[in-house]
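Session log. Operator J.P. requested a structure for one protein chain; no other inputs attached. Running the standard single-chain path with C-alpha cell output.
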Amino acid sequence: MSTTFADLHIGASLLQILHERKMETPTPVQAEAIPVILEGKDAFIESPTGTGKTFAYLLPILSRMDLDKKDVQAIVLAPTHELVMQIAREAEGLLPSQDSAVLPLIGGVDVKRQIERLKKKPILIIATPGRLLELIDQRKLKVHEVKVVVVDEADRMMDAGFGKPVADVMKRTLRDTQRLFFSATIPTEVIQAASNLSRDAVVIRAAAPEGAAGVAHMYLVTDPRRKVDTLRRLLRLVNVRSSIVFVNQIEKVDEIVSKLNYHHLPCRLLHREASKEERARTIQQFRDGVFPVLITTDVSARGIDIPGVECVVHYDPAPDADTYVHRSGRTGRMGRAGLVFSVVTNQELFIVRKFAKQTGISITEKQMAYGALEAPKAERKPEQRGKAGSEQIKPTRQGSPGKPEGTKTGQGRPDALKNRKPGKTRT
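Structure written below.
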C-alpha cells in the first residue's frame, strides 16, 4: 500500500491544499524526508532534480509552525534571486490565508522596503545569505525564535563562495535550531564541510519516482566553427516548445542569438549582469511561452523549476559533473520525459565521457542526418540509416498538427514527447 500525504501527518490545511491540487501521493524524497523533519532531526537530503524537494521541507516546516506567533520561525537559504522568489511563491501558495507570512530577501533591491515588510512580522524568511546577514547585523531582523534553517542547493551553498555566509547565519541562530541541507547532489565533502553546523544529522539519498518517463542524454561532435549552426539544426530537429541552452561565457551569446533569431527561432538571454527586474521578466515570459529558447549561464541551473521544459542543451561543457546534473535537471522534472544534448568539439569529448563515468549516466553519441538523430556511422550498418535503429526526431511539416514524422513508434523521443503536438516549423 502506497504512502499518502495524510499518512505523513501533514497539517490539515496543507492536506486540503494538496487535495485541491490533486496531490495525494508523496514522491520518494518527500516520503523519506518529511517524517525525519517532523521529528526535528538535522539532515542531509539528496534527491534528483525535479523530484519535489521544495515541498519535502516546506510541508513539514509549515506543519510545525505556530501561525499565531508573529516571529520568524524558519529560514530557507538559496543561492540565487530567482530560486529565492520561486521558493517564496511555493510557500505563499501553501499559506493562502496568511498575508505577509512569507518574506523573500534578496540583494540588489531597496533594503528600506524590505525593512518595512519585516515590520509586518513574517514567520518564514526565504533569502540569499548576504542580504539576510546584512539585516541581522543591522538589528532589523531577529532570529532567536528560528526553529529550523534550510540550506537549499547545499552543494553550492557550502562551497568557497557561500560557505562562510551560510555558517555565519547558522551561528546567529540558537544551538538547538534544526539544520537541513537539500540538493540534487550532496557529495561526502559537503557533509564533512557542514558537519560542524549540524548535530547527529541523518543522511537521506532518495531515488527518482517509480515509473518516471526518464531523460535521454546524448552528445553531438562538431567542428568549433560550426557549433552555432549545429545548435540551430538541433533545435529545429527536436522541434519542442521550450529549450534551455547553457553557455559558460556571455561573450559568445551574441552570435547565437543573432543566428537563431535569423532562422526564426526566437530566443532571449538570461545572465547575472541583467537587472533583477529584467531577469524576472525573461523567466516569466519563457514560462508563458512567449519565446521557445532561453539561453543562459549557470544562473538558471540551480533549482529553477520551469514546467514543460522539454530539452536542455549544453552548448559549452559544464565545469564539473555536479553542474552537468543540475543543468540537465531543468528538464524531466517530476518524472516527466526530457532530452539533454551536449554539443562538443573533438577536444571537449573527453569531458562528456568523464561526466558519464562520474555520474553513471549513459550519454550516447548521435549524428544529425536525413532529418533524424542517428548513431555514428561507424556504429551502425548502412541499411539501418533512417530505419528502426535511428532516432527519428523529425519536425512536423508546417501546419501539420500530427505526430512527428519518422518511425511509427516515434523512436528516439522519451515517451512524454512522442505524442506531443509540436508547433509549426519554419524553414
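Operator note: The radius of gyration is 23 Å.
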